[in-house]
C-alpha cells in the first residue's frame, strides 16, 4: 500500500462505522470553510520558506481532496481515482504543446492557449472574464480580472501609472500606506477595491461586446 492509499484508507475508516462522529457528519458544504482556510495557510507556509511547515500544510490541503472524494464515494457518485483521472486528463488536454503537436511562444502563449482551451471546454461562458469567483479577496480578484483582460486583448496596461513601485517590497509598503490612510479616513479598502473592480469589469465586458 502506498502512502496515498493509506491516507484514503484512514479517511474511509474515520467516516465508516465505529469511526469519528465529527468526520462522519461532514458534507461538501460544511467543509468549504476549511478548504478556504487551508489554502490561506498553505500560502503562508510557502512564504515562510520552512519545508516542514510546507509539507504539513500540503497534507492539510490533500486532506480536503481526500475528504470530499470519500463523501462522494460513499454516496456512489465518484471516488479519488475518478478525481485523479479527471485531473490527469485535464492536464494533458490543456498542455497540447507538451502532449500534442501545438507550438506556443513562451509563457504568454501557454496562458493564451490555456484560456482558449478552457473557453472551448465551457461554451456556456460567453466572456473571457467569466468564471472568476466573486468570493475571491478583492486584490486577488482584481489581479485575476486584469490578467484575463490582458490575455484577451481587452486591456494592454497602457493606462498603468508609470510611477508605480518597481518591486514587491516597495509595492507592499505603498499598499500598506494606502490602507493606513484609508483606515484613518474611515474608508473600507476591501470594499473600495471590490467596487472599482466591478466597475472595471463592466467596462471590459462592454468593450468585449463591441468587438
Structural summary, described in words:
With 211 residues, the protein is mainly α. The chain folds into three domains: 3-87, MazG-like (Helix Hairpins), CATH 1.10.287.1080; 94-125, no CATH class; 132-209, no CATH class. It has helices at residues 3-15, 21-25, 28-48, 51-74, 80-93, 96-99, 106-121, 138-151, 168-184, 189-209. It starts with a helix and ends with a helix. The mean pLDDT is 92.
Overall structural class, as computed from helix and strand content, comes to: mainly alpha
| CATH topology descriptor of the largest domain | Helix Hairpins
| Main sheet attributes: strand count, strand direction, barrel closure | none
SSE order, one letter for each helix or strand: HHHHHHHHHH
Q: Going by CATH, what is the homologous superfamily of the largest domain?
A: MazG-like
* Percentage of β-strand residues: under 5%
CATH class of the largest domain: Mainly Alpha
| Shape-level CATH architecture of the largest domain | Orthogonal Bundle
Given as residue ranges, the uncertain stretches (5+ residues, pLDDT < 50) are none
Total number of beta strands: 0
Shape: globular
Number of discrete helical segments = 10
**Total number of domains:** 3
Query: Span between N and C termini?
Result: 56 Å
Radius of gyration over all CA atoms, rounded: 21 Å
Oligomeric state of the chains present here: single chain
Helix-residue proportion: over 70%
Mean pLDDT across residues: 92
Short descriptors:
mainly alpha, 211 residues, Helix Hairpins, globular
Concise summary:
The chain has 211 residues and is mainly α. It is built from ten helices and no strands.
Amino acid at each position: 500500500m502506498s502512502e496515498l492509499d493509506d491516507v484514503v484508507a484512514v479517511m474511509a475508516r474515520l467516516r465508516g462505522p465505529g469511526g469519528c462522529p465529527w468526520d462522519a457528519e461532514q458534507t461538501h458544504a460544511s467543509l468549504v470553510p476549511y478548504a478556504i482556510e487551508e489554502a490561506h495557510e498553505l500560502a503562508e507556509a510557502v512564504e515562510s520558506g520552512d519545508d516542514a511547515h510546507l509539507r504539513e500544510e500540503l497534507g492539510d490541503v490533500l486532506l480536503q481532496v481526500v475528504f470530499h472524494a470519500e463523501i462522494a464515494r460513499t454516496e456512489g457518485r465518484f471516488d479519488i481515482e475518478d478525481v485523479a483521472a479527471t485531473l490527469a486528463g485535464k492536464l494533458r488536454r490543456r498542455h497540447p504543446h507538451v502532449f500534442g503537436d501545438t507550438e506556443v511562444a513562451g509563457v504568454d502563449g501557454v496562458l493564451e492557449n490555456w484560456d482558449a482551451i478552457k473557453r472551448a471546454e465551457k461554451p456556456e461562458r460567453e466572456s473571457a472574464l467569466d468564471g472568476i469567483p466573486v468570493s475571491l479577496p478583492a486584490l486577488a480578484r482584481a489581479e485575476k480580472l486584469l490578467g484575463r483582460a490582458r490575455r484577451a486583448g481587452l486591456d494592454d496596461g497602457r493606462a498603468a501609472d508609470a510611477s508605480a513601485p518597481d518591486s514587491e517590497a516597495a509595492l507592499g509598503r505603498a499598499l500598506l500606506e494606502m490602507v493606513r490612510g484609508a483606515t484613518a479616513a474611515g474608508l473600507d479598502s476591501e470594499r473600495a477595491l471590490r467596487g472599482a473592480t466591478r466597475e472595471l469589469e463592466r467596462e471590459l465586458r462592454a468593450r468585449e461586446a463591441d468587438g
